[in-house]
Amino acid sequence: DLRKQARQLENELDLKLVSFSKLCTSYSSTRDGRRDRYSSDTTPLLNGSSQDRMFETMAVEIEQLLGKLTGINDKMAEYTNSAGVPSLNAALMHTLQRHRDILQDYTHEFHKTKANFLAIRERENLLGSVRKDIESYKGGSGVNNRRTELFLKEHEHLRNSDRLIEETISIAMATKENMTSQRGMLKSIQSKMNTLANRFPAVNSLIQRINLRKRRDSLILGGIIGICTILLLLYAFH
After folding, report:
1. Does 200 map to a domain?
2. Which is more confident, 186 or 33?
3. Structural domain tally of the chain?
4. Residue 142 resides in a domain
């Protein structure tokens, strides 16, 4: 029952983290598109958008799921340490360790995605404030057009750099997902190898017993043949 609850929570967490990651990657592009649709500063850049509210809601939900999964893992640990459970049950210990590793991976991924989202939002707020100051300066007077153009070019360069950073983050996240799947495959292979290794000693012991019995039978047969040969020789000479 505890394993079933843990798997259900892990599936929910996996779906939530995927949606959370997509929200993080789409946040910057959405804010860029919103700024391009409006040519004036009448719409504030730093408003309480639906994405910000969605971020807060999803973060709370994921933290609650992580807490529930932690509680389930603690209950499974208490069960494996109870008096009625054999202390040498390798399958239970392996299952418990597997669920602990999954919980650790999900917790690390959540904190990393949350930190990336906060960094992107802070950067967007900063760039939005700079752009607003530039537009205000440009609209206030017709002088220093050269400096205004330089500011706009620098802003464009910053936006291009942001896009490159976002692409790099996306590639890194995809690489991380691939590494996670490969690690799961390697752990599965390792568990199978451990199972085979645990079975091999019993097979080797059985083979050794068979060989010892063959040697004993050979010695007995050789002794009988030797005794019969000696008796035949004695009979022949007498």
Report:
1. no
2. 186
3. 1
4. no
